[in-house]
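Entry 0007
Protein: Dephospho-CoA kinase
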Amino acid sequence: MLILGLTGGIGCGKSSLSNIFRNLNIPIVDADIISRKIFEDKLLLEKIFVHFGQSIKNDDGTLNRKALGKIVFSDEEKLKELNNLTHPRIREKIISEIEKLRKKGENIVVLDAAILVESGFLDMVDKLLVVTCKQEVQISRIQKRDNCSEQEALSRINSQMSQEEKSKYGDYIIDNSGTITELESKAHKFIEYMKENWRE
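Output (structure tokens):
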């Protein structure tokens, strides 16, 4: 079974490509959904509350994501501490999801993760596909999607690993500077290529 990693910078169209693959009946393991769901684990939540303080706890005992975000996104050390608590659980869950699909006899599984490279999950995939686009397209998409200024869009782009850096890790690159129709065409060709050429 081929485990294909899928990643890309904010606004590059990773989610659009993931949805196209899903429509082609390719199973998707979405690390971003998994990383949100692990905060439902009471034991992990308790560790996070102890570590970061009660100010991030809602009255009903759930996590105040906004409050936690304010702490970790303004302090690199705090972000590392959070990742040290959460990444082992995320990895565990990803492995479990992939194994379920392996037992079902799937040929290709896509591991969709925005920060796949940064999270140290590269060893979990056989090949890595990176979605890129021109920066002016990236800025325009973020502005439209998040209703923010050009400066805010740039700030979000600059807070992540650059497209150039991410692409160095990629076995395959798909440029998504064009339309959704063009992306669909590239996705179809790519999956056909992988089906024909992938050998374990």
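Curator remark: The radius of gyration is 18 Å. The chain has two domains: 1-27+107-199, 36-105.
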